[in-house]
Amino acid sequence: xxxxxxxxxxxxxxxxxxxxxRKVVRTAGPEAxxxxxxxxxxxxxxxxxxxxxxxxxxxxEREAELRETFxxxx
Length: 74
Fold this sequence. Notes:
Distance between the termini: 96 Å
Number of helices: 2
Structural class: mainly alpha
Strand content: under 5%
Number of strands: 0
Mean pLDDT: 94
Shape: rod-shaped
Radius of gyration: 30 Å
Number of domains: 1
Largest sheet: none
Helix content: over 70%
């Protein structure tokens, strides 16, 4: 009876380990990493576009202030 118990424990631990390893491989595999990198790049591009838009707006606003201050016309 003791041997059967330990065989069952060994089988259970094996199944548990296999399930966990498969999960790790899925989340850390090449496809998962590539997806994460692609998402990070897309986020960086979106942030750069937003920054460029804010920069252009602030630049135009400052130019208008300077033109008004120095009495220049466009």
